[in-house]
Write a structure and sequence with these properties.
The structure holds two protein chains of two kinds. Helices cover 68% and strands 3% of the residues of chain A. Chain A is an all-alpha fold. In chain A, α3 packs across α6. Chain B is mainly alpha-helical. Chain B has one domain. Chain B contains six helices and one strand. In chain B, α2 runs antiparallel to α3. Chain B starts with a helix and ends with a helix. The mean pLDDT of chain B is 91. Classes of the chains: A mainly alpha, B mainly alpha. The interface between A and B is large, with 71 and 51 residues. β1 of chain A pairs antiparallel with β1 of chain B, so a sheet runs across the interface.
Chain lengths: 167, 195
């Protein structure tokens, strides 16, 4: 039973690692590196894993923890405890990349525009870009689906305006 | 730019790093961190309550054996203050459970606000549940000791100044740390609720 639980946890982390890191990169600041946030998220997923209800959607659950951890880091809730994880078994190996890579530029523009949004809008758009349905976004954020749809309309407009200026 | 294109840019973001897990070690590391964190909290609780218990034992002893009425009354006040501090700390430990991060973001922010407000109130009211009862007891107790008037004139003001410093430090922490944090959380909740 425990082995099965551990195996499932590792599968979930493996499957969602890139999405989690993408979100962490948006919430990282000069006080906390994306890699530290990532470790904090993995730690909290494992810590909360016993409370995971099989009926819930695992992705929704993972995103909920990811965004909550990132939001708390942003608000600086755990000033004393932040950044104290040292999980040596998670490695981030840098890949040398072309500096003028077009995809990189477009991604950086998008990330820059997202980081200018309000905190809640940022969370909503991140979930939207991860292709999460409005019903799930509503569950993760805690607002009604209609409210999310209204917000999304405005966020998309702001985002496109920002990207147009950048391009 | 099409919405799908934005999703593509996002999801196909060039990976600047490869994330690798040492699977056999990861769970050991995670459990180690959980234990470390829980142990730190347990130790903090033991330290806080242990100190109050220690003071309670010492001053109960004084209250029983000292003959001077003022020293006796002072020691009784301090012992009762220690019991009250233990009660207060226990109450706070019960109230301040770790925030459940599997809540929705809105619920989590509301819970965090409650948590931070409790923490803020504790420091904000430190004068009433910690400083005043202990100081009052201490001054009475000191007066009951067979000290010369000169020594009393030196020790009591030092004691009062020390308490004022503790009070100011707590007030500053509330002002600089907790109030901005509560304000930021309120702002995030407001932003979330607006259309």
């Amino acid at each position: 039973m425990q082995k099965e639980k551990e195996r499932l946890f590792l599968t979930i982390i493996e499957k969602n690692k890139h999405s989690i890191l993408r979100i962490c990169k948006v919430y990282a600041s000069k006080y906390i590196e994306p890699e530290d946030l990532f470790q904090d998220v993995v730690y909290n997923i494992w810590k909360s894993y016993t409370s995971f209800d099989d009926k819930s959607n695992i992705d929704t659950w993972v995103y909920r923890i990811t965004l909550n951890v990132c939001m708390r880091a942003k608000l600086n809730v755990n000033k004393k405890t932040n950044n104290h994880f040292n999980i040596d078994s998670i490695h981030f190996n840098q890949i040398p990349s072309e500096s003028n890579d077009i995809n990189s530029e477009r991604f950086e523009d998008l990330r820059c525009c997202i980081s200018k949004l309000k905190e809640t809008d940022k969370s909503i758009v991140l979930l939207y870009l991860e292709d999460i349905a409005y019903s799930q976004i509503s569950e993760i954020i805690g607002l009604t689906e209609n409210h999310i749809a209204v917000k999304m309309k405005r966020i998309k407009k702001n985002l496109l305006e920002c990207l147009t200026i950048n391009i | 730019m099409l919405e799908q294109e934005l999703k593509n840019i996002w999801q196909n973001s060039p990976q600047k790093e490869i994330i690798k897990f040492e699977k056999s070690k990861l769970l050991i590391d995670l459990n180690h961190n959980i234990n470390k964190f829980e142990k730190a909290i347990r130790n903090r609780n033991i330290r806080e309550i242990g100190t109050a218990l220690f003071l309670f034992a010492i001053f109960s002893y004084y209250a029983y054996f000292y003959t001077h009425p003022l020293a006796k009354i002072g020691a009784i006040i301090i012992s009762l203050a220690c019991l009250f501090i233990i009660y207060k700390l226990k109450q706070v430990q019960r109230l301040m459970k770790p925030i459940n991060l599997t809540f929705s973001m809105k619920e989590q922010l509301i819970e965090t606000r409650i948590y931070i407000t409790n923490e803020k109130n504790l420091l904000d009211n430190v004068l009433y549940w910690y400083l005043l009862p202990l100081s009052f007891g201490m001054i009475i107790f000191t007066m009951g000791l067979n000290m010369s008037f000169k020594r009393l004139l030196i020790s009591v003001p030092i004691f009062i100044v020390l308490n004022i410093v503790i009070y100011i430090i707590n007030k500053l922490t509330v002002k600089k740390k907790f109030l901005p944090l509560i304000e930021n959380i309120n702002l995030s909740i407001e932003e979330m609720e607006e259309d």
